[in-house]
Amino acid sequence: MATLDEIRANTTPGQVFEGQAQHLLLLVMLLAGAVSLLLFTPDPPRTLGLTSGDWALVSIALVVLHQGLVAIVFRLQLHHATLTRLFGERDLTVWSAVFLPLLAARPVTLILAGWDDPVPITGLRLPEVVLGALLLAPAIWGMHSTLTHFTLRRAVGGDHFREDIRALAPVRGGVFEYTANGMYGVVFLGLWAIALLMGSWNALVVAAFQHAYIWVHFYTVEQPDMRRLYG
């Protein structure tokens, strides 16, 4: 298995941009679908000055910003050590300070999108609440497993920065005993849970967009990177 220095010494522009044409195309399609599904009503209530539809658009925009930055930083760091050249030993700290607030903004803006949404999902609140609770439980378990077994250093892409993180053993324990991708497959169920518990149509659209787009990121950014990092 090549070291990070060897990967960087043999990198090509094609490797840096691998999968990004598909990434952009799928993003455009997802954006068109999500925006077309959002519902705006006359004289809607507002939360912190914005309507449910406004917060939905803010949430979608922040998700695109987050994942766009991740794609750029992961590739530049993996192939050119760009953040290390800019920030030295503080590279991972600086990146975490950007990554984690944008990650936290996902559920926060989703809640704000659903808070005063006048458009219900089905109007059948009991089934929505029950289904939301059923999805929330594994999402919380997955988040706990991510923090305790996977760790934040790995979650922010630490293996693109440090050989010692890259050399860690495959994750076991918690949700990772049952799936190799507990974050995207299980933790993101919490977004659907929030939308269902709030009974908000716009929040449901945003949750669907977020979950679909994270899988686009996985297949067009992370999977090619993993092939180079781990063979």
Summarize the structure.
With about 230 residues, the protein is mainly α. It has helices spanning about 5-10, 15, 20-35, 50-80, 80-85, 90-115, 125-150, 150-155, 165, 180-185, 190-200, 200-230. Helix content is about 75%, strand content about 0%.
Terminal-residue CA separation: 6 Å
Percentage of β-strand residues: under 5%
Overall pLDDT score: 96
For this structure, the quaternary state is single chain
Shape estimate = globular
How many helices? The count is 12
The parts where pLDDT drops under 50 for at least 5 residues are none
Overall number of strands: 0
- Report the biggest beta sheet as strand number plus sense, adding barrel if it closes: none
Output the helix-strand order.
HHHHHHHHHHHH
Question: Which value, in Å, is the CA radius of gyration?
Answer: 19 Å
How many distinct domains? 1
Structural category:
mainly alpha
Q: Could you estimate the helical fraction of the residues in percent?
A: over 70%
Describe this structure as you would to a colleague.
The chain is mostly helical and 231 residues long. The protein has one domain. It is 73% helix and 0% strand. It is built from twelve helices and no strands. Helix 4 packs antiparallel against helix 6, helix 4 runs parallel beside helix 12 and helix 11 runs antiparallel to helix 12. The chain starts with a helix and ends with a helix. The model has no long low-confidence stretch (mean pLDDT 96).
